[in-house]
Amino acid sequence: MRFVPRRLGREIARAARHSPALILTGPRRAGKTTLLRRLFPRAAYRLMEDPDVVARVRSDPRGFLEDLAPPAILDEIQNVPEILNYVRTRIDLARRRKGPWILTGSQEAPLMRGVTESLAGRAAVFELLPLSTRETGKVSLLRGGFPEALARPSEASSWFRSYVQTYLERDVRAVTAIRDLATFRRFLALVASRIGGLLNRTDLACSLGVSIPTIGEWLSILEVTQQILLIPPYFENLGKRLVKSPKLYFVDSGLACHLLGIESEATLRDSPFLGALFEGFVASEVVKEQTGGGRRKEVYHFRDLKGLEVDFVIPAGHRRLLLVEAKASRTARPGMADSLDRLARSMSRYRVERLVVHRPTREAETLEALRPGVSAVGIEGLLKRLRAHP
Fold first, then answer.
1. 72-75 and 44-47 beta bridge pairing
2. How far is it, in rounded angstroms, from Cα 264 to Cα 24?
C-alpha cells in the first residue's frame, strides 16, 4: 500500500512553524516515523532503539546533540528520556531557530511525564493512531487500521502474530519486568474478550489466577503503550446514580479480532463478539477523528444503576451533545433508539442529537418518520456530524 496522507500531518506542519519542539506519540507501527520523514525529508534522523545510539546518548548526551542541527527526528525517545533536559537546554540557548526538535514515543505516559518536567511550554504534542476510515477506505472492522496489516491483507494474520510477539518482547519488558509472558498473552486474549464491557479488574484477576494489583499493572502497560481505550463514564448532575467504571476497548479492531481468533469476514459475521467489536470500532474512529484534527480525546459512556445505558456521549460544541448507540446490524430499527430517548429527556440543558450508528450497505435514510429526532447513519455519517461541530 502506498503512503496514505495523514490528517494529522497538517497540524504537525503548522505547529513546526512556531514550536521549537514537537512530540508525536502513538502505538508502535501506527506510522509515526513514516509520517515525520515525509513531512521533514531533510531532517536528521536517529533511532533511539539502536544500541550504539543509546550508548552514545548515555555516555555523552551533549556531544550527541551538538552533532545534530534541527530539524532533527529523535525516534522512540522513551528509551533515553534523560536526553529531554539536554534538548531543553539546546532550545533555550538557540539564538535563531532553524527547525524543530521532533521527538516520538510509543509509551505515552512516561514520555509525557518527561515532557511536562523538561519541555513545558516549548513543545507541541500530538497523538497518531492507526489509519482511520476517513484516511483510507481500506480500514475495516476485521483488519483495523495498522498500515502494514492493510498493505498485505492476505498476510495480516501473520503480521498481527509478529506484532504481538514484538510488543511482548520489546514494549512490555521495557515498561516492567514481566516474568510470565505466557500468562500475559492469555491476559491479552482475555481483555479482548471483555471489549465493550465495564472494566472489572477482579473478574480479570480471578480468570487468570493472578492478583488484582498485577491486573492493574498490566492494564497500565496496555494504556501506556496505547493499545486500549478506556472510555470514562459521563458525569452530570442528572439525578441518577451512575456507574463509575470505564468501558474497555482496543484502539485497533484488527488486533482485537486477531486476539479473538477471528480471521475472516465469515467468522466475524458469526462471532458473538461482533457487536462489541463494532462498538469498539466506532469508539476508535471517533477518537481518531478528534486526535487527527489535533484535538483531545473526548468521548464518554453512560450507565446508571437502574439499567439505562447509552454507548457513547460525545461533546460536540457549546452545550451540544451527540448520544450514540452502536449496532452491528445492517438494519436500523426504531427500538434501537429507546435508551437514547430516555437519556435525552434528562438533558434538557443541552442541545442533544441522537444517532444510531450501524453498518449499512449504503448510507441509510434517517428514522425521522418513525422516531422524531433520531437518525440512523453509518460511521461516515457520525464523523460528518463531529466535523460540523468541532
1. parallel
2. 33
354 CB-side CA count, 13 A: 20
Instruction: Check: CB of residue 356 under 8 Å from CB of residue 337.
Output: yes
How many whole angstroms separate alpha carbon 268 and alpha carbon 255? 13
End-to-end CA, the chain: 31
Which is more confident, 195 or 99?
195
Amino acid residing at 279: E
Cβ contacts of 21 within 8 Å, gap of 6 or more: 87, 91, 100, 101, 102, 103, 119, 122, 123, 124
Say how far apart CA 105 and CA 126 lie, in whole Å: 11
What is the predicted pLDDT for the residue at 279?
98
Give the pLDDT confidence score for residue 227 in this predicted structure.
94
Report pLDDT digits (tens) over 36-85: 999 999 999 999 989 999 999 999 999 999 999 899 999 998 888 889 88
User: Of the segments 105-109, 195-199, 362-366, which one has the largest average pLDDT value?
Assistant: 195-199
Going by their DSSP bridges, the two strands 101-105 and 72-75 should be labelled as parallel
Q: Pull the grid cell for residue 216.
A: 492493574
Domains of the chain: 8-127 (3.40.50.300), 147-282 (1.10.10.10), 308-388 (no CATH)
Name the pLDDT band for 225 (thresholds 50, 70, 90).
confident
| DSSP reduced 3-state for 46 | strand
The alpha carbon torsion through 128, 131, 132, 136 (nearest 10 deg) reads 140
pTM over 0.90? The answer is yes
- Cell numbers for 168, please give them: 511482548
Distant-in-sequence, close-in-space partners of 269: CB < 8 Å, separation ≥ 6: none
DSSP letter string, 171-237: IIHHHS--S-HHHHHHHHHHHHHTTTSBP-HHHHHHHHT--HHHHHHHHHHHHHTT-EEEEPBP---
Cα gap 25→174, rounded to integer Å: 16
| Per-residue pLDDT, 368 | 53
CA distances from 215 to 178, 229, 239 (A): 12, 16, 33
